[in-house]
Amino acid sequence: MEQIEFCKGGGCTAKLGPDILDRVLSRLPAQKRDPDLLVGFDTNDDAAVYRVSGDRAIVQTLDFFPPMVDDPYLFGQIAAANAMSDIWAMGGRPVTALNIVCFPQSWDLNILGRIMQGGAEKVAEAGASLCGGHSINDNDVKYGLSVTGLIDPARVLTNVGARAGDRLILTKPLGTGIVCTAGRVKAADPASMDEAIRSMTTLNKYAAKVLSRYEVHACTDVTGFSLLGHLSEMLGMKRRASGSPDAEDGGGQVAGGRQAGQTDQTSDMTLPDSTGQTAGAGLAGNSNQTDHAVQAGSRNQSGSSPLGAVLHTSTVPHFKWVREFVEEDFFITANGQRNRNHLGDLVEFHNTAFWQQELLFDPQTSGGLLAAVPNEIADEVLTEIKKLGLPCSLIGEVTDQLDHILVTA
Ligand SMILES: Nc1ncnc2c1ncn2[C@@H]1O[C@H](COP(=O)(O)OP(=O)(O)OP(=O)(O)O)[C@@H](O)[C@H]1O
Ligand SMILES: [Mg+2]
């Protein structure tokens, strides 16, 4: 049988860089904005939101990438968990999913079967229906989902809208890029690999359900652009970093999309989701969120009120042995360096070791939710999410006293 190399490195490290995206998207021809398109790609949000009636909107996203683990079944689980995550990051609930498959047809089809089985099981756990897909004969494996969710237009959680004084909650540990890089060369301790796989296969549905019970000013999921990259978007910093024109002047109306290329990551191992709860519970019951989320976002976009943040590295959750992987073996990713370069002087480090900096720039696959919540409720929200068994943490706060991100011990 043909010698195959299933995992050459992938996951969210395979995304094109934010600077490249900015340059291309800002040059798309301007289109008249449909008033029912509540969220497009002009704020780099997690998914598009389109209102179909007074109290109902659809949320659309898609994600696919090459394998970052050696086990096809686990890869399918991780890719599906990652693809659906954007729906929960918007405050929605996924209802339908379509498979996106690229696969070399000369390979053993059981491999593809295992990938799709892993994906289908996660779609079922989400309470959504797998209802089709599209399959291409390709040189390399890539897999993911196109997902549609539902949401009340008055309860959309955008990635912008954070306010000074908000505390920042992160619901999963960091370090999937670093750990999978170590795993690809078989240098990862099984304990850290297991931990990373358990985290990547855990649906953000459960943390999102807790967040839906509280007032949340902004929410996103942490993926390829790293914690610092996605936080900078939450603070409205992206355009200052890239110098690209304001999308409201020139942005088009394409609802969104993804790219997958090739990069450096891997691993293997197993681990089922440990947070089993009733499938399809969705995000009903949020009494506090109103359309302030959509409107408050424009405050940041206009640049009229620059926001910054303070992050405390001692509170940032991370996988075992990440420090050793970085300091002793230099298992860092090319896209971590890309993220560092892209953010430039928007990030200021005080007393922050190199490994901690790398952790904050590390591209995450199926990372956790990052939410900005009012200070008064932050501890309670954290306690509730911790009850799910998630290693979540309050990692910093939003401030109007800075226009950049200060990282301290
Ligand atoms: N090819 C594309 N065409 C149009 N918009 C795109 C394209 N690729 C990405 N985008 C948009 O750019 C923004 C950032 O994309 P990105 O894939 O980083 O979204 P994300 O949700 O933050 O990432 P992830 O899916 O990893 O969580 C999103 O609004 C997305 O819809
Ligand atoms: Mg996202």
From TrEMBL:
Mg(2+) binds at D46, D86, D221. One of its GO terms (biological process) is selenocysteine biosynthetic process. Binds 1 Mg(2+) ion per monomer. The active site is at C12. It comes from the Bacteria. Homodimer. Residues 45-150 form the PurM-like N-terminal domain. Residues 239-309 are annotated as: Disordered. Residues 163-235, 305-401 form the PurM-like C-terminal domain. Its cofactor is Mg(2+). Residues 250-259 have a biased composition (Gly residues). This is Selenide, water dikinase. It holds the Pfam family AIRS_C. The keyword Transferase applies. Residues 263-278, 285-305 have a biased composition (Polar residues). HAMAP family: SelD.
